[in-house]
Every structure is written in structure tokens, then in C-alpha cells.
Amino acid sequence: MPKAVLLLSGGLDSTTLLANALNEGFDVYAMTFRYGQRHASEIEAARRVAAAYRVQDHVIVDIDLRTFGGSALTSDIDVPKDRNLSLGEQRGIPITYVPARNTIFLSFALAWAEVLEAQDIFIGVNALDYSGYPDCRREYIEAYERMANLATRGGVEGTNPTRIRTPLIDLTKAQIIRLGLELGVDYALTQSCYDPDASGAACGHCDACQLRLRGFEEAGVEDPARYSKKVEG
Asked: Environment class of residue 59 by beta-carbon count within 10 Å: exposed (0-12), middle (13-18) or buried (19+)?
């Protein structure tokens, strides 16, 4: 089976991504980051998911993006709650964007892929449901792939070119959930909330929770995630 490095956050998208990559026949090496995020419970979710799917290897990389801050996820800035996320009404880049996060994550993944001689790197970016993050756009991914093939031995020599795989990029959240259910994903293992409580229960009001809840509602199934208090769909 071909080797692939997959960025696994423990959230809904990356877990669906993992199930899809395995279904396509890849031997998956999963990479998770402990980067100083306030929602560090996602790391435990990633561990649960990696164990459930018995990935070939699962590494947790420690970096501290709190050194720079600049995001509600890596500083003391409040996480926005109950924003209107209707398509066409999003304005600007939200404060939950972590500066250059996907560029940093992909660089670590690229280094590991080069060591493993893996051609494929999977990342669960999505530009349709929520396009506020500049590093989730198709043009960014295409540019990164070009750079990766200029920056690695296998890319320059043509012996092991890099492919950045983004199978979820054009799917709605509901479509992602339906795909995962078809692949047997247990979404109770996942954690999406930006601002969970001390027990890991989701807030139900941040952007990530709203998108997740709306996705499950549109997919016609109940969200098995644990919320801190009942959230009306």
C-alpha cells in the first residue's frame, strides 16, 4: 500500500479524511500538533481516532504558537460566539484564524513524508462551508504543492513528487458527514469545538460548533458530540 502522511486534528473533517484515505488503500501515518491551542482536548480526540483506525504511526508534534499569538485560539482573545455564518455574509478573516498554521503544519508533514518516501500528504481543508481562512483555499494548496516539489530531493529529481490531497475541499459539512457515515465513522470520537469546557464538552456557540451542528442537521442525523448544555439545532 502507498504511504501517506495525514494531518489529524481529531475533528470531524480530519477523521472523515482518515477514513477516506484508508478506504482508498493508503498506509496512513498520522500527525497531530500540540501548538498551544486552547482547545487542547482535540489532541485526546486525535489519539482516540488514531487508535480506533490503527494507523501505521501517530506522532504528536509540540510547537508553541502562543509565542506569536494573534489568534483567539493561541492567546487570551475571546472566541467569538453565535456569529452569523450564512454564506455570503462572512466578512474578512475571523480572529480564530491562526497565522500561517497550515503552512507550518504542511511543512512538518512534508519533512516526514520525505523521510518516509511518501508521495501523498492529506489535509482536511474545506473552502465551501467556511472560506474565511486564507490557507484553506484551493489556490493556496496548489501553490504549496508547487513549492514542495521545488524544495525536496524527490521533487527536484522527479523520483518522488509530492501531492497534497484535499478530497474534502469542495464538500459541504453535510456532505462530509454523509461520506463519513458511509465509511463507518464514529463521530462520537471527534472534537470540533474551539472553546470546550474543562471536561472537554463543546460550547455549542463558536463557529466550529455552529458549522458542525448545522452539518448534522442538514445531513438528517443527530450529532453524537457532548455539549456543555443543550443546544437547539
From this structure: middle
